[in-house]
Amino acid sequence: MRQPFVAGNWKMNGSRDSAGQLLEALVRDFQPNGAEMVVCPPFVYLADAMRTLRGSAIKLGAQNVSAEESGAFTGEVAATMLQDFDCSYVIVGHSERRQLFGEDDENVARKFMAATRLGIRPILCVGETLEQRDAGETETVVRRQLDAVLEAAGVHAFVDAVVAYEPVWAIGTGQTATPDQAQAMHEAIRTRVGEADGTIGDRLRIVYGGSVKAGNAAELFAMPDIDGGLIGGASLDAENFLDICQSAEKAGAN
Ligand code: PGA
Questions:
Q1: How much is the pLDDT for 1?
Q2: 236 lines ligand 1 (CB under 6 A)
Q3: Residue nearest to atom 7 of ligand 1 (CA)
Q4: pLDDT in tens, 117-126
Q5: Where are the domains of the chain?
Q6: Which CATH number fits domain 5-253: 3.40.50.2000, 3.20.20.70, 2.20.130.10, 3.10.28.10?
Q7: In sequence order, what are the residues at sequence separation of 6 or more whose Cβ sits closer than 8 angstroms to the Cβ of residue 47?
Q8: Helix, strand, coil percentages, rounded to 5, for the chain
Q9: pLDDT above 80 for 115
Q10: Which residue out of 103, 128, 166, 249 is catalytically annotated?
């Protein structure tokens, strides 16, 4: 049994005020029923978030981490700093980081290891662009992204990790992958990790991201290899996010 997992990736949205209100609403209304819920606010709101979430079942995550431990890296945030703010999770390799900030597979693998070294669980994002899908390269691209981390970190580093399959063309576009398209890739990811270690592959939580909403979450989460979601836009609204979380719980209970 894999515990359903739902994380909210707030990206660079909101204000200190709106972040506080969103967290308070989540803390007030979240009734854990089997799923693990994580919120990933911008770095500067982590301190507030840590205080608001104290004593609640909701866990805190960050959106990025430096591959370096410490030193002259202006603008970077180290894994030890995330630890200071009780971050249990960190997103690594999000396609926006890969595409807009030049993160390559090697960099992503180093970030993944910087997190796992400190016991912070990485949410490793992989996914193809529309161009790559149209060229029939989806599996090759996702496999390359996954292999870069598997080879650098070793399969045992995946024991506590979550993998997020996020087709780039589905992120923030309103165009969700069909449950069958997503399931096919989730299965391929599980098979790949399973080739390295069967038990770790079986237990690995693989979540889908890309325009998940309250209205389409249930059908995605009903697929056998989809263990929850990484939610962008819809995680900025407490009611929607809680609804999505409930869908994950229902799917997990079946
Ligand atoms: P979206 O973003 O839900 O707004 O499509 C998902 C993500 O980028 O993690």
A1: 83
A2: no
A3: 232
A4: 999 999 999 9
A5: 5-253
A6: 3.20.20.70
A7: 85
A8: 50, 15, 35
A9: yes
A10: 166
